[in-house]
Amino acid sequence: MAARVAPSMVAPTDDELLLAQADLWRHSLYYVTSKGFQCAIKLGIPTAIHRAGGASSLRAAAGGGPPGPPQPLLRHVQGVPVRHQARHTHRHPPRRGRLVASRPRRRAVPPAGQAPVLPPPHAAAGLHGRLRHRRDHRGRRGVFRLTPLSWLLVEGAAPMVDSHPCQVPVALAATSRHCVEAAMGLAEWFRKEAAPSAPAPPSPFEEAHGAALFEESMAELDPESDAMFNEGLAAHDHSGFATVLRECSGVFQGLQSLTAGRGGDGTATRAIVEAFPGIKCTVLDLPRVIGEKRADGAVSYVPGDMFLSIPPAQAVMLKLVLHHYNDEDCVKILAQCKKAVPSREAGGKVIIVDIAIGAPAGPLLEAQLLMDVAMMVVTKGRQRDEDDWRVLFGKAGFSDYKIVKKLGARAVFEAYPYQVLPNTTLICGFCL
Ligand SMILES: C[S@+](CC[C@H](N)C(=O)[O-])C[C@H]1O[C@@H](n2cnc3c(N)ncnc32)[C@H](O)[C@@H]1O
């Protein structure tokens, strides 16, 4: 039986329906962009172009001449992170190739009550579009060169760009079957989440694989995949930290001591000491990560659980930590931070490096929104916008906070404990 159209409903026009059909194809097939991107990385195309001196034919980059991958196949690899070196002459500076194809259309703010349309996932990579054959100034066809993104994907060398370790492990982890399978269970997971009486389910990742990402259970279940995820995590977390130290030097200047909560292998902490040799730094991480190590030049290592206690210091740094957790757990962690630092007057503060959703519309905002969904799929965490951060710091009992600087999709915050003034009650910046 045909569905009836209520008199108040206005049916879409033919043109709208034709566009809707194209939208349906796009939304159904965006995964191809991600998988094409993965394919380009697995073929080692950025590395090969780099080895060839920065410009190469795609066939050569993807495995040499015959019998390398057939050109028609390569042409259809979506999201290859390279661009054409089209008509490079001194008079005409190199033009960008067409790999960054159609820009996502601006979407109007949805009417009240209507769900916003999430930006197209592939747009976050800013890479979609087909390779087009062009000739360079020597008449060679299909010559490609590295884009800024492919600089991050060159393997086998020291970081190509200051403080940006190779991001191949990040891309391979994010596009792995583990993450894709977890996302495929989202509808089932939402049903469980919404069930009124049932306990909240674990993350979709844990539901799908029976182990929690970045936790002991994953190492026990599948050590090889656990190692892959941890490698991706380290590359992700360390990328761009030198920029933070340069651009936000005031956050660290004058500090006497700092504890890095969930400090991992201490790479970021060692970079702090290198840039600010006067700071006595401590890395806190789980016993299985710290092992027997207790000191490494100016950095001390303490095994422990930050939910239980954090080694005291003038500042505690939580770099890319809180987005792994829901608000309840964040409040517990921040409570331990407050115990670990002195009053604001004595320079006590918590330094937070994390995403603050709210970039202007475009690739940065799309990346932030996709990272929000990704955290929901793989952990129990989320990304937060500025309002969420304000509410969280308030709930955790901090007197005030400020965003020191936004750097790309991330932001650097300082949160201050209550200021205790003589003969006064506590001052709370959130209430004044
Ligand atoms: C995403 S964090 C690393 C981020 C790190 N702050 C950075 O920016 O490089 C991952 C680390 O958190 C550690 N970790 C997880 N739970 C922890 C806890 N309860 N207490 C301390 N460390 C923890 C893990 O062992 C892992 O090394």
TrEMBL record:
GO BP terms in the entry: methylation
Q: Which InterPro entries match?
A: COMT-like, COMT_C, SAM-dependent_MTases_sf, WH-like_DNA-bd_sf, WH_DNA-bd_sf
Bias-annotated ranges (Basic residues): 84-108
Cite the Pfam families for this sequence: Methyltransf_2
Annotated GO molecular function terms are: O-methyltransferase activity
Keyword annotations for this protein, in alphabetical order, are: Methyltransferase, S-adenosyl-L-methionine, Transferase
Question: Taxonomically, which superkingdom?
Answer: Eukaryota
For the region Disordered, give the residue spans. Answer: 81-125
Domain O-methyltransferase C-terminal residue range list: 186-399
Of which family is this protein a member? Belongs to the class I-like SAM-binding methyltransferase superfamily. Cation-independent O-methyltransferase family. COMT subfamily.
Looking up PANTHER family in the UniProt record yields: O-METHYLTRANSFERASE
Q: What is this protein called?
A: O-methyltransferase C-terminal domain-containing protein
